[in-house]
């Protein structure tokens, strides 16, 4: 064999190995770049020459944390350039970047420091975590965000969240190009920012939840700096003139009164001096305006302090030029030409189910547009803590915070989507559809990050695109939730009951809404769900061995903004839902909440399945029958204001950390 032939064969072998790795999905980028071309020229980090006009210390840390050494004489290098423009970038150029990874060079070009920071996050994701060496996978990337606002909101006015937890969330989400933290600091329960002008505002006597818990002015400045270091803009919100009972308790004046406005201006002066940020959010939602000069005067005052102003919509009515940005908070919110808008209309995570709503969130366009514009700035996912949750861990866990934020991070960066929560809603379409494949690909990448980035974080999501069901047409139960129907005797594709035919249809997911909590605004399995009906869902689960597993099971995901009562002892819910595995009924856990008066100040207990240990279940080797009975009476009852006609069932490891491997969910026993 000639030397040239040997070299050719070796090169071919290396190329084929790398090509197989690429095809095997070794690139787990999230969010996906706008333009991405893989290559076979991987970069091995060892001794590197570092050339950058910006973020020098950050790049030095990036190299040293991975065991590399910066050496001005090294042949391999990382080169960063700031340029006036980037070819191929269509919008939001200030956050765009070009990234090339070759065998001896990593090259980054960006218009601004912000683009360089995002390129660094993408490069970190390109590291092959399975290799003993530090290897960055070769590629060419041209990337930019479709929307300039990609954020999350924490309602600390109702429930204080520690600085450590807020920083933990900010640091993690910045790795996925989330660039806004909205800090809702005031509420009826408390004014959470220290005031040196009016220290009585922070007195425990004026706080109805978590007294004594507030942020010092120094902590606020520290968090602003922390956000800036992570390429994130902090938007503080001081809600006015509504949601202000803590203010009224302290000063005995309504904000809209002459006395209240004088006090509020002094507070706003202190706020504006504290926050070195471009925007201040002033609320203006859910209130009766008694003083027509209040909002215009406050906007003028804040602008005079050098801040741009954001206001909720619906709220005060503005004309272009009278406000800098509006924030859409309900289905009635409507963007106005000439006024930039942030879309949060269907982005309240406190109402979301663990598995159903993330499908709608990922598939849906932001404000039903392909990409951002001068008038459509982007989106913020909100966590409203109306109801007390007894730990920061559960606040994050039960809101499915990180999975939902990763879905939002990709959608807001990539743009696009297939609907606006209004076509398929929470329901995954057929497996051969573009929507299904897109979500399945996202799910795969998200779960990769769960394994490699989120150890020690509250992250309850497991794979659900393989969980398949047959669900019957709903049988009318006449208000008798215990009434039995034919599926309890035999599983079939079609039933005849009282002379009428009832078919079954397929559905995919660990959690399925039969009717969404927001009714027909967000479509679910039944296009026209009706009260006083009973449905059945069934599947067969193939297990490769006899084994003890855990089960996440629930029939009412309790929202974190409702004062709903826990189920009665021995019942799954107030609907009469039941589940059988291999014809043996699976009973609910012992509920920890036993109070019988509805209250937002009594914490959620173990009602939501991810907030309790999984129920122990034995799976036989071979096929296991799973049958769910799903009655519903009224869609609103005294114990539960917003009845969710839904179910969650999926098998997980006994510790609840992962899905059980090797299971096949198939209603027709097809492997």
Produce the secondary structure layout:
Blueprint (H helix, E strand, L loop, with lengths): L2 H21 L11 E4 L4 E2 L2 E5 L4 H10 L3 E2 L6 E6 L14 E5 L3 E6 L2 H13 L9 E2 L2 E5 L5 E7 L7 H12 L5 E5 L32 H13 L3 E8 L4 H7 L6 H17 L4 E5 L10 H11 L3 E6 L11 E4 L12 E3 L13 H7 L12 E8 L8 H7 L2 H14 L19 H19 L15 E5 L2 E2 L17 E4 L2 E9 L2 E5 L17 E11 L3 E8 L23 E4 L2 E2 L29 E5 L2 E11 L12 E8 L11 E3 L5
Parallel strand pairs: 3-4, 3-5, 5-7, 10-11, 10-17, 11-12, 12-13, 13-14, 14-15, 15-16, 16-17
Antiparallel strand pairs: 1-9, 2-8, 6-7, 6-9, 18-21, 18-23, 19-23, 20-21, 22-29, 23-28, 23-30, 24-27, 24-29, 25-26, 25-28
Helix pairs in contact: 4-5, 7-8, 9-11
Question: So, the CATH homologous superfamily of the largest domain?
Answer: Glycosidases
| Mean pLDDT metric | 95
Total of domains: 3
What's the shape?
Answer: globular
Tell how many strands the DSSP assignment holds. Answer: 30
The CATH class name of the largest domain reads Alpha Beta
Main structural class: alpha/beta
CATH topology of the largest domain: TIM Barrel
DSSP helical segment count: 12
CATH architecture tag of the largest domain: Alpha-Beta Barrel
Strand content bin:
15-25%
* Helical proportion, percent range: 10-25%
Rounded Rg: 27 Å
| Distance between the ends | 48 Å
Biggest beta sheet attributes: 9 strands, antiparallel
Low-pLDDT segments, ≥5 res: 7-25
């Amino acid at each position: 064999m000639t030397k040239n032939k040997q070299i050719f064969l070796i090169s071919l072998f290396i190329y084929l190995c790398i090509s197989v790795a690429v095809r095997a999905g070794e690139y787990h980028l999230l969010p996906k770049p706008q333009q991405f071309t893989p290559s076979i020229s991987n970069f091995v980090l060892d001794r590197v020459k570092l050339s950058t006009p910006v973020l020098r210390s950050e790049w030095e840390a990036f190299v040293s944390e991975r065991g590399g050494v910066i050496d001005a004489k090294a042949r391999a290098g990382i080169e960063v350039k700031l340029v006036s423009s980037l070819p191929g970038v269509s919008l939001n150029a200030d956050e765009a970047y070009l990234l090339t990874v070759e065998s001896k060079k990593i090259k980054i070009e960006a218009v601004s420091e912000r683009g360089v920071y995002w390129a660094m996050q993408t490069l970190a994701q390109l590291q092959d975590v399975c290799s003993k060496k530090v290897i960055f996978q070769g590629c060419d990337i041209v990337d930019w965000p479709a929307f300039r606002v990609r954020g999350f909101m924490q309602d600390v006015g109702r429930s204080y969240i520690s600085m450590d937890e807020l920083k933990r969330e900010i640091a993690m989400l910045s790795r996925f190009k989330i660039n806004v933290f909205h800090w809702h600091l005031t509420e009826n329960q408390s004014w959470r920012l220290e005031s040196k002008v009016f220290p009585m505002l922070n007195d425990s006597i004026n706080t109805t939840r978590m007294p004594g818990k507030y942020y010092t002015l120094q902590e606020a400045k520290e968090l602003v700096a922390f956000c800036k270091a992570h390429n994130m803009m902090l938007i503080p919100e001081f809600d006015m003139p509504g949601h202000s009972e803590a203010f009224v308790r302290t000063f005995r004046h309504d904000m809209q009164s002459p006395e209240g406005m004088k006090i509020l201006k002094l507070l706003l002066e202190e706020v504006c001096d504290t926050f070195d940020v471009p925007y201040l959010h002033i609320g203006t939602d859910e209130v009766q305006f008694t003083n027509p000069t209040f909002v215009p005067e406050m906007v003028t005052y804040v602008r005079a302090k050098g801040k741009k102003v954001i206001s909720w919509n619906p709220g005060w009515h503005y004309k272009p030029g009278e406000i800098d940005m509006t924030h859409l908070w309900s289905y009635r919110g409507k963007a106005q030409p000439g006024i930039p808008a942030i879309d949060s209309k269907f982005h309240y995570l406190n109402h979301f189910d663990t598995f159903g709503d993330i499908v709608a969130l990922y598939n849906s366009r932001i404000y039903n547009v392909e990409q951002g514009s001068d008038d459509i700035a982007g989106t913020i996912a909100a966590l409203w803590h109306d109801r007390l949750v007894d730990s920061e861990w559960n606040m994050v866990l039960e809101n499915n915070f990180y999975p939902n934020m990763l879905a939002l991070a990709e959608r807001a960066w990539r743009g696009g989507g297939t609907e606006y929560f209004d076509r398929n809603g929470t329901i995954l379409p057929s497996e051969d559809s573009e929507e299904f494949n897109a979500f399945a690909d996202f799910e795969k990448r998200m779960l990769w990050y769960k394994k490699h980035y989120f150890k020690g974080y509250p992250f309850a999501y497991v794979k659900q695109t393989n969980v398949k069901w047959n669900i019957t047409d709903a049988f009318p139960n006449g208000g008798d939730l215990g009434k039995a129907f034919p599926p309890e005797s035999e599983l079939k594709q079609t039933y005849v009951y009282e002379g009428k035919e009832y078919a079954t249809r397929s559905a995919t997911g660990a959690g399925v809404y039969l009717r969404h909590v927001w009714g027909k605004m967000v479509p679910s399995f039944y296009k026209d769900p009706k009260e006083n009906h009973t449905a059945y869902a069934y599947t067969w689960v193939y297990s490769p061995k006899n084994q003890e597993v855990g089960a996440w099971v629930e029939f009412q995901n309790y929202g974190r903004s409702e004062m709903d009562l826990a189920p009665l002892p021995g019942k799954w819910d107030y609907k009469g839902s039941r589940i059988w595995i291999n014809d043996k009924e699976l009973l609910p856990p012992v509920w920890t909440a036993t109070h019988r008066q509805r209250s937002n100040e009594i914490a959620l207990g173990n009602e939501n399945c991810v907030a309790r240990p999984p129920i122990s279940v034995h799976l036989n080797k071979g096929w296991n029958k799973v049958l769910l009975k799903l009655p519903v009476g009224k869609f609103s009852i005294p114990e539960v204001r917003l009845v969710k006609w839904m179910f969650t069932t999926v098998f997980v490891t006994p510790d609840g950390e992962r899905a059980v491997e090797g299971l096949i969910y198939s209603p027709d026993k097809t492997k």
